[in-house]
Amino acid sequence: MPKIKTFKDMHWQAIEMRWKGYSYQEIAGKLKISKDTVKSWFRRKNGLLREHYKDYAEDQYIKYYRNRSNKRQ
Q1: How far apart are CA 10 and CA 61, in angstroms?
Q2: Which pLDDT value is given to residue 56?
């Protein structure tokens, strides 16, 4: 799947809200779009934001564990 070159703010907001545990319905309500649109963005195959969300989640995990290890030292 090709990566999006230019994201709208709503795409980044959706990714961040999904990471924080918001439901599709909550994301749709906050962004004033349909729940089906949000679901399609995160769809397993060919979802517009699927790969970007995976990258975002990986970055968040890395930051979390890096901060944890720095606090232990």
Answers
A1: 22
A2: 87
Rounded to whole angstroms, the Cα distance separating 14 from 37 reads 11
Find the angle CA(62)-CA(63)-CA(65) to the nearest 5 degrees: 65
- Tell me the chain's radius of gyration from C-alpha atoms: 14
Q: Would you say 19 and 11 are in contact if contact means Cβ atoms under 8 Å apart?
A: no
Give the model confidence (pLDDT) of 12-37 as tens digits: 999 999 999 999 999 999 999 999 99
Residue range 42-64: mean pLDDT, rounded: 85
Can you give the pTM of this predicted structure? 0.71
What residue spans define the domains of the chain?
9-72
- Euclidean distance between the first and final Cα of the chain, in Å? 41
